[in-house]
Amino acid sequence: MPDEPIRTPTWRRALVTGASSGIGRALALRLAAAGTDLVVVARSADRLEQLAAEVDASWPGRRVEVLAADLADRSALARVEQRLASDDEPVDLCVNNAGFGQHGPVAELDVDAQTAMIDVNVVALTRLSTVAARTLRARGHGGILQVSSIAGFVPAAGTAVYNATKAYVTSYTESLHVELRGTGVHVTAVCPGFTRTEFQERAGYDAGGVPAWLWHDPDTVAAVALDAVAANRPVVVPGLANKVMTATVRVLPGAVTRRVAGLFSSR
Ligand SMILES: NC(=O)c1ccc[n+]([C@@H]2O[C@H](COP(=O)([O-])OP(=O)(O)OC[C@H]3O[C@@H](n4cnc5c(N)ncnc54)[C@H](OP(=O)(O)O)[C@@H]3O)[C@@H](O)[C@H]2O)c1
Fold first, then answer.
1. Catalytic: which of 162, 168, 172, 205?
2. 5 domain residue, yes or no
3. Is 91 inside a domain boundary?
4. Is the pLDDT of residue 219 over 90?
5. Between the N and C ends of the chain, which has fewer C-beta atoms within 10 Å?
6. 168 in catalytic set
7. Domain span at 26
8. What is the tally of structural domains in the chain?
C-alpha cells in the first residue's frame, strides 16, 4: 500500500477497470492515497469489496463504488459506460486497465478466447474512451489513462493477438491525445514490460526464464502511469531496460526486429 501524504488530488473521482488485482489494484490504491474517490470495475465483486474495505480502513471518508461487470459482455459494459457518462458524482479520470493475454500459436488457440481478448483489450477500451472523450471534453477537464504494453511495439510468436491488441491501444491513444490537445483532457498510454501480477499465470505463460532485473512491481508501474497522465504525456514506458528496448525497436528495420523476435519467442 503506498505510504503518501494526502494532498489535493489531481482527480476527484477515477473509474478504474481491472481494479481487482495487479496494476489496476495498485492504481486504485495510489489514487485513493492521493485523495481521489473511486469507481472500481472487474468481474470479481468479492475482491472489489475487499479493496473498498481496505481503502476505507486506510483513508476513512474516501468513497469507493463497486461496479462488478464482465467487460466482454455488451450489456454489462453498457452499465459501465452509463456510470462513466453520469453527471451525478462525476468521474474525471477514466483508467482502462482491464486486460488479459493468452499464450499459444494462433493455429492452436481457441478462436473465441482470442476474440474475447479483443473484446476486453480493444472494444471495451474503445467504448469507454469514447464516452470519456465526449463527457470530459464537454466539461473541459479530465483524463484518460490506458494500460497498454511494450508487447505492442514488437512482433512475437505465441502472443500474436495480445500484441496486436496492445499495438492498437498505443496507436489509438496517441491519436486521441492529439485530438484532445487543448481541451483540458489529458490522454496517456502506459506501456509496462514484465510486471509481477496474475497476468502471466492467467495467460498460460511460463515467465520463469525472465531475468529478475526485467521485472517491475505493479506499484512502480502505477506511480509512473499516474505521473504521466497528470503531466499529459502521450506515451510512457516504465523502466530503463524497457525504454531502451522500445526505442531500439522503433529505429531497427522490420526484418531485423522480426528475426530477433523469432529467436526469443516460443511457438
Ligand atoms: N503484468 C504484466 O507483465 C503486464 C505487462 C504489460 C501490460 N500489462 C497490462 O496490464 C493490465 C492489467 O493486467 P495485470 O498485469 O494487472 O494482470 P492481472 O493481475 O491479471 O489483472 C487483470 C485485471 O483485469 C480484469 N479483467 C480481466 N478480464 C476482464 C473482463 N472480462 N471484465 C472485467 N475485468 C476483467 C481482472 O479482473 P477480474 O478477473 O476480477 O475480472 C483483473 O482485475 C492489462 O491490460 C495487461 O495487458 C500487464
1. 162
2. no
3. yes
4. yes
5. C
6. no
7. 13-264
8. 1
**Model pLDDT for residues 19-66, shown as the tens digit of each residue:** 999 999 999 999 999 999 999 999 999 999 999 999 999 999 999 999
Q: What are phi and psi of 3, to 5 degrees?
A: -110, 90
**Ligand 1 within 6 A of CB of 33:** no
**Interval 136-154: pLDDT, tens:** 999 999 999 999 999 999 9
pLDDT, position 265: 62
* pLDDT tens digits along 223-245: 999 999 999 999 999 999 999 99
CATH of the domain at 112: 3.40.50.720
CB of 175 sitting under 6 A from ligand 1: no
163 lines ligand 1 (CB under 6 A): no
